Amino acid sequence: MILVLVWAMYIAFAAFDILLAGQGFQGIIGGNLTLWMILMTAALLLLAVFGYDWIHLFMKYQTWAYVAIFVLVAVVLVVHGLPLSTLNHGAFSFSNLLLATSVIAVYQISYAPYVSDYSRYLAPEKATGTFWNTYWGTCIVSIALMTLGAAVASLAPTAQTLTEVKVIGGNTLGSILVLLLAFGLLPPSAMNIYGGILSTLTIGNNFSKFRSTVPLRIVVGVGVSVIALLVATAGQGNFMNSFENYLAALLYFLVPWTAINLTDFYLVRGGKYRTEDFFNPAGPFGNFAWRGLLVYFLTFAVEVPFMNTSVFQGPISKAMGGADIAWIVGLVVAIPLYYVLARNPKAGTPDVSDLSKWLEPAGTKGE
């Protein structure tokens, strides 16, 4: 189920970038938005087909280029000036604060599938810094760009962000910045198509065993790209509202999963796993890790009364004036509950007290 949610996450983020990049090119060059979105989708698919190395090659050099571009946008914004009134748009709203916090939280948590895409190839001696490098990298960049985006949006709250960048930058510089920003969405978002391909094949392998070939991956990539394009096309009229609801739903589902994973890794097993055990039905995890599944579904059920979306609002959220603390409640419930259930080795949790058991190669026990 989690893999299906991750697949849907890839589709949604790809659709968002397809729409935003398409709007950027249409706003400067003109033409039909749907045609631009088709071109953006084709670009994402080509990068995904060429694969992992091409995406990372683009992103390696893109990082430094776009640091300079965003610094330039910040300079243009300062030169343009922000009226003091921009700091006084409306009154403080606790529910809106929680919403913003939720968006930031899901943005961080949703990085988990992406992290596995590049961390799997790291040398063991470099793997220990993966968490903090990823955490601080996403935090610093996110805070900086969210602050910059909020400043740009405050000048024209109802306008598209890229449109406003063109306005504050002037006809020439603003147009160049918009095109660069729109293009910059493509290499990172190609990971969504790439990840969508891998997720689709993995889901399929759970039902029928088959060999992943290059032609098959290309066909699946075309399918994933078309679905993302259809989602972008269908939601372009009210995409931000739909995307906001999707992020909220994603957070409800991902928080229990993340809490269980981290609790298992850090508190229960101390980071000691044997890869073979994940694929052994008779191993410590079995066909179904029922403790994790039980905690997951119980946690989600507890979250429901605290939820608040445009589709559904729980009774406790209504009583709290619209505040949505479902994901916070999920963390508070899932961590201690899973820890209590999973700490009992006799109940199916491997005993990690003896490190030699975990370092012993598969198939050598008793030889």
Supply the helix-strand structural class.
mainly alpha
**Share in β-strands:** under 5%
Gross geometry: globular
Q: Which sheet architecture does the biggest sheet show?
A: none
Average pLDDT number: 82
Query: Would you count the extended β strands for me?
Result: 0
Helical region count?
16
Order of helices and strands: HHHHHHHHHHHHHHHH
Q: Can you offer a commentary on this structure?
A:
- With 367 residues, this protein is mainly α.
- The protein has two domains: 1-237, no CATH class; 239-351, no CATH class.
- 74% of the residues lie in helices and 0% in strands.
- The chain contains 16 helices and no strands.
- It has helices at residues 2-29, 33-50, 52-80, 94-109, 112-119, 124-127, 130-155, 161-184, 186-205, 214-235, 239-268, 275-278, 290-303, 315-319, 326-342, 355-359.
- Helix 2 packs antiparallel against helix 10 (214-235).
- The longest helix has 30 residues, at 239-268.
- The protein is globular, with a radius of gyration of 23 Å.
- The protein starts with a helix and ends in an 8-residue tail after the last helix.
- Residues 346-367 have low confidence and may be disordered.
